[in-house]
Amino acid sequence: MSSGKLYLIPIPISEGDRDSLSAEVKSTVPALRYYFVENIRTARRFIKSIYPEANIDAIQFSEIDKHKGPDLPLLRNWLKQGQDIGVMSESGCPGIADPGAELVAVAQELNITVVPLTGPSSLLLALMASGFNGQSFCFNGYLPVKEPMRSKEIKAFEQQSQKLKQTQLFIETPYRNNNLVDDLLKCCNDSTKLCIAFNITGSDQFIKTKTIKQWKQSKPTLGKQPCVFLFLA
Asked: What is the 3-state secondary structure (H, E, C) of 52-72?
């Protein structure tokens, strides 16, 4: 029996956006009947939005537990049955800042074909529009929440950026966006350039680059929406 394939399916970053989806996403989704997803409700709604004729009840979903991670034995079983499987995060590209990497690691271990489909990545889109170094950059994920570690890491990454001329990228839990802006303005040098990007590809997309000094003069108020923060010292 032949083994299945693992398809990594990008999801729109902005609610309601379908223009950023590639043709291969739209043609692959209708053919799949097995999925690992971050949120079943979101996944079902997405599938219906691009394939209204889909029989959702015939599709098997495994939701990735936020604490325990994905059901890897189930993945192995589905793949060995020869099933083709889709992986969806809630937005953007699977395996980038979400649990999808664990599923891909198992597929690679089993010598399963992994098929990354093209689609929107907030990190790369923000980097493209920032005006910062796109040849040397580092994605740092989430900063520590508590002090003094939070300030220490911001300053350490700023020093690394200055030494290597390297762009530093971060994300934050949406309800803490404004707190991160405050901490970046407090910890970074006035001459460091900060790019704030949110709702990328949306109708109210915001991507602005200014120095820390300039941001202090016109500090933005960010809502509870996905943001990417980049700086270059």
From this structure: CCCCHHHCEEEECECCCECCH
Q: How many CB atoms lie within 10 A of CB 29?
A: 22
Task: State how far the Cα of 190 lies from the Cα of 27, in Å rounded to an integer.
Answer: 48
Inform me whether the pLDDT recorded for 1 exceeds 60: no
Cβ burial, residue 91 (10 Å; 0-12/13-18/19+): buried
Partners of 92 in the β-ladder: 11
Q: pLDDT tens for residues 43-77?
A: 999 999 888 898 999 999 999 988 888 999 999 99
211 phi and psi angles, rounded to 5 deg: -75, 160
Check: pTM over 0.90? Answer yes or no: no
Instruction: Return the top range by mean pLDDT from 141-145, 203-207, 222-226.
Output: 141-145
Whether omega before 148 lies within 30 degrees of 0, making that bond cis, reads: yes
Q: Which domains, from first to last, does the chain contain?
A: 6-116 (3.40.1010.10), 122-232 (3.30.950.10)
Longest dimension (CA), the chain: 64
